[in-house]
Amino acid sequence: MRARFGFLVVALVVCVSLGMLFSPGPSEAQIGASRNFFSPLKVGDAVEIAYDNSGKVVLRTYDDEFNKSKMIAKVTDIGADYIAVEIKSTEPGSKTAVNTRYPIHSILSIFQVTGATGADSTGDTPAPVENQPAKTKTPLKTKKTTK
User: Fold this and answer.
1) Residues 6 or more apart from 50 whose CB is under 8 A from it?
2) Which among 72, 88, 73, 75 has a CA at the least distance from the CA of 40?
3) Are the C-beta atoms of residues 97 and 74 closer than 8 Å to each other?
4) What's residue 101's pLDDT?
5) Distances 43 to 48, 57, 88, 112 between C-alpha atoms, Å
6) Strands annotated E in the chain
7) How do beta strands 73-78 and 82-88 pair?
8) What's the half-sphere exposure (Cβ side, CA atoms, 13 Å) at 95?
9) For residue 145, what are the CA distances in angstroms to 24, 138, 140?
10) Is the pTM of this model over 0.85?
11) pLDDT tens digits for 108-143?
């Protein structure tokens, strides 16, 4: 009985040791202490602020010249659980700016849009889509057969 109990203890220690030896270590993202939800942004970055259907904030940054005019807000402070932005007025000649702080739970996502997204390769604006009435589908007529 004692030999059997000793064997079980040794087997348990070996299994735990092997499990610890072959378990994966922390990933690159887990090692860096500065990696958090706001890590794609830094103070001074220009961002576009939008809202989704549920009222959550969506932050976007663009790297193409066509969409740079959409980024009217500038990141002024980043905390562990909030981001502060300064939103410039869109009125021409106005120097009005509003400082706003968004808590992390009110932000849905941060998008970094790269590449030419708003214009074709010639730099022209895309053609507008015309509003046309939707085509309605008529139900198929089937004949009822009886035997």
Assistant:
1) 57, 58, 59, 60
2) 75
3) no
4) 92
5) 14, 18, 16, 15
6) 46-51, 57-62, 73-78, 82-88, 97-103, 107-113
7) antiparallel
8) 0
9) 66, 21, 15
10) no
11) 988 888 876 555 444 444 444 444 444 444 454 555
CB 46 within 8 A of CB 68: yes
How many whole angstroms separate alpha carbon 81 and alpha carbon 78?
8
The set of residues, in sequence order, having a beta carbon less than 8 Å from that of 72 and lying 6+ positions away, is 46, 48, 49, 87, 88, 90
Question: Amino acid identity of 55?
Answer: G
Alpha carbons within 13 angstroms on the beta-carbon side of residue 105 total: 0
Q: How far apart are the first and last CA of the chain?
A: 80
For residue 118, which of 65, 71, 72 has the smallest C-alpha distance? 65
Phi, psi (rounded to 5 degrees) for 32: -70, 120
Q: How far apart are CA 108 and CA 10, in angstroms?
A: 50
Identity of residue 28: E
